[in-house]
């Protein structure tokens, strides 16, 4: 039998955690042949709730689940970790300024990055889900100088999947017919969802959609503001869809993206597409099972570049703010 993969999930007692852990344990993330050991990290007040979730994980009798350990200490939780899902974050409270939010999250993601640096396995891969995801990933990466920055990623996959669903519905196709959408920039309302290189049923998406105004006036804002629409309808933020996107992101990273298809990944910029080097931004990316690679050489229209630049401008501001706070 194979050695279990150590998967650490932070914020394990939260709503995304509850939607995520059972799917990891069932094999949806790493495949049907890979046993997993779950390591749950929570704050002390939520450890009891995490223990309840662990009881339910036992009660599922998942054949691939090697065991569940619960921690309230980051150093212990990340010891030997192969896949780290950083979900727990500090939400924006009433009257909280952006600087306060960034500082509060720096107090979480800085120490977690240091704990990953200290104890993670050599092949560690990190996905940051907790918002502001891109900048939290940057903070964690800069607190882990011995781990290649490429191993720290931020989740753009939920935005990507939202885009696939909108395009399939608009064109009366299935989501599996839609490929090569890109979500550029920040996981925020200023993201730039891009269909220029997408295909639907093998044909250029703009041609199949046949309605450029819909793309600009409906598609882009619907995808970018979907998180708020979910909160409005559900009275709580996206959880099962966020967990599903995290599963998709790690699965494609570890097992590879389908031939000829890319997905959207928040990853460190090498300077491509005018994104300043070192920022963690949404890019089109592929994996063959090792590292994420940015898809190079795509033509970008002036309009698209302007959309990318706006979103990247926001990332630059966030980076400047955390630099000023001494968090990176
Ligand atoms: P939640 O509030 O239900 O759960 C968060 C959990 O994190 C809580 O159980 C809390 O105790 C825990 N936590 C807080 N600080 C922690 C720390 N230092 N170490 C370990 N655990 C800690 O929140 P939910 O709905 O599960 O969302 C989690 C995060 O994911 C939020 O920041 C949310 O904004 C973000 N999110 C990101 C998305 C994306 O596409 N990137 C999509 C949806 C949500």
UniProtKB/TrEMBL annotation:
EC number assigned by the record: 1.1.1.37
Pfam families recorded: Ldh_1_C (PF02866), Ldh_1_N (PF00056)
Reaction catalysis annotation: (S)-malate + NAD(+) = oxaloacetate + NADH + H(+)
Positions of the catalytic residues: 187 (proton acceptor)
Domain of life, per lineage: Bacteria
UniProt keyword list: NAD, Oxidoreductase, Tricarboxylic acid cycle
Sites where the protein binds substrate: 92, 98, 131, 162
EC class (word): oxidoreductase
Boundaries of every Lactate/malate dehydrogenase N-terminal domain copy: 6-145
Matches recorded under InterPro entries: L-lactate/malate_DH (IPR001557), Lactate/malate_DH_C (IPR022383), Lactate/malate_DH_N (IPR001236), Lactate_DH/Glyco_Ohase_4_C (IPR015955), Malate_DH_type2 (IPR010945), NAD(P)-bd_dom_sf (IPR036291)
Family the entry assigns: Belongs to the LDH/MDH superfamily. MDH type 2 family.
Protein name, UniProt field: Malate dehydrogenase
Naturally occurring in which organism (per UniProt): Demequina lignilytica
């Amino acid at each position: 039998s194979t050695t279990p993969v150590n998967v650490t999930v932070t914020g394990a007692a939260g709503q995304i955690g509850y939607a995520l852990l059972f799917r990891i344990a069932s094999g949806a993330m790493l495949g049907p042949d890979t046993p997993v050991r779950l390591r749950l990290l929570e704050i002390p007040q939520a450890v009891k709730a995490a223990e309840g979730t662990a009881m339910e994980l036992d009660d599922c009798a998942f054949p691939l689940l090697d065991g569940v350990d619960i921690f309230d200490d980051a150093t212990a939780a990340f010891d030997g970790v192969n896949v780290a899902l950083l979900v727990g974050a500090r939400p924006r409270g009433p009257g909280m300024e952006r600087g306060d939010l960034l500082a509060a999250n720096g107090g979480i993601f800085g120490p977690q990055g240091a704990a990953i640096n200290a104890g993670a396995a050599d092949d560690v891969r990190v996905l940051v889900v907790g918002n502001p995801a891109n900048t939290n990933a940057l903070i964690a990466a800069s607190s882990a100088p011995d781990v290649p920055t490429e191993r720290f990623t931020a989740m753009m996959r939920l935005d990507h999947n939202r885009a696939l669903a909108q395009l399939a519905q608009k064109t009366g196709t299935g989501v599996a017919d839609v490929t090569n959408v890109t979500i550029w920039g920040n996981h925020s309302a200023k993201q730039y969802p891009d269909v220029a290189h997408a295909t639907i049923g093998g044909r250029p998406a703009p041609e199949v959609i046949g309605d450029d105004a819909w793309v600009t006036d409906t598609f882009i804002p619907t995808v970018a503001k979907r998180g708020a629409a979910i909160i409005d309808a559900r009275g709580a933020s996206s959880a099962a869809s966020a967990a599903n996107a995290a599963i998709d992101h790690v699965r494609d990273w570890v097992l590879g993206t389908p031939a000829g298809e890319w997905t959207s990944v928040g990853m460190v910029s090498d300077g491509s597409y005018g994104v300043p080097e070192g920022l963690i931004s949404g890019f089109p990316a592929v994996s063959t099972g090792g590292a994420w690679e940015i898809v190079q050489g795509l033509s970008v229209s002036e309009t698209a570049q302007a959309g990318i630049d706006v979103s990247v401008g926001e990332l630059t501001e966030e980076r400047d703010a955390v630099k000023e706070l001494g968090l990176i």
